Structures are given as structure tokens and as C-alpha cells.
Amino acid sequence: LCRLVPVSLGLAWRKRSRSPLPFSLLAQHFMKPLQRFLKPQDIEIIFINIEDLLRVHTHFLKEMKEALAAPGAPTLYQVFIRYKERFLVYGRYCSQVESASKHLDRVATAREDVQMKLEECSQRANNGRFTLRDLLMVPMQRVLKYHLLLQELVKHTQDAVEKDSLRLALDAMRDLAQCVNEVKRDNETLRQITNFQLSIENL
């Protein structure tokens, strides 16, 4: 399969593999420094399960590199299929990231020292190009785009057997995206019900 990967897509993956994972940036340059400024419950609300995502993606990226470089390694489609279940940790993250961003805004607005620390962390992490709020959205955007990458691979693959194999991976990532979106919708419905119940109780 490696030889059938379009050059542009292979280069895109290699470029991505050389850049810091957004999960690593979040954990190393924001979460750890902010632990000295925020309560543990604030850290948990804002960063959700980012450390779980970091662990999963560190292994995923390693296997993707091997699939692109080593003839005897598992193929791309096998890597994607194997990680379908592991990527379910995204469900919790994606369903809570909007609430996490709102909580971050409230904390930063209420405390000037936190706002200053956020700016310092952003400067150290990426020269101030992206805020913590920006980076919190990246994991969700990434997981919902994997099926688009696989669509391109299917389109550019000529070998019928390889194309069928890639379609299996494409179906797996489509299922994952659907699952993540369903978890997001379910959590949003629960939030709406909770808010409605609270509004009734406050009448």
C-alpha cells in the first residue's frame, strides 16, 4: 500500500508527523503550567481527557510512520481499523469541549493572573499564534477529518484489492465520526434537559 499512497498525501502525513501533536502542546505547554494556578476540578473540566488522547495518538502516529516507511509494517488501512475502538475516547472529549471552552472563558475573565498565564503559555507554545481556546478545538476537528483523508486515498488507489481494503478503513472512520457526533448530540440533549429542569426549579 505504501507505494500506492499519492505523493501529496504521503508528504502531508510526514509533515504532520514532524509537527508537535496538538495533544502534546495542550498537555505540556498549557495543562501542566496551569496546574499551579487552577483547581484540579478546573483542570479536569478544561482539558477533559486530553492525556488519554495524547497516549492513543502517540502510538497511532508511530504506526502510521511505520506504515509509510517500512515494507513489512501493517498497511495504512490496518492501522486505521485497529485504532477505531481506541479512538472512541474522542466521544467524551468532543461532547465536552464546548463546555470546556466556556468554562475557560469564565475562569480567565474572573482572574487576571490566569489570563496573563494563558498568554504566556501561548507565546511559549507557538509564539502566540494560537490560544488555548483555539487548540482545544483541534482534536475534534482532526478526528472528524480522517474519513476525508481515506476518501482521497481510495480515489487515488488503482489496485482493486488495495481499494477494497481502504474502503474498510474508510467505513471504520465514518462509523467513528458518526459515533462521536451521536455522543455530542446526546450530551447536548442532556444539557438542555438539565437546564430546563433548573429553570423550572428556579421559578
UniProtKB/TrEMBL annotation:
GO terms for molecular function: guanyl-nucleotide exchange factor activity. InterPro entries: DBL_dom_sf, DH_dom, GDS_CDC24_CS. GO terms for biological process: cell migration; intracellular signal transduction. GO terms for cellular component: cytoplasm. Residues 21-183 form the DH domain. This is Proto-oncogene vav. It comes from Neovison vison (American mink). The lineage of its organism: Eukaryota, Metazoa, Chordata, Craniata, Vertebrata.
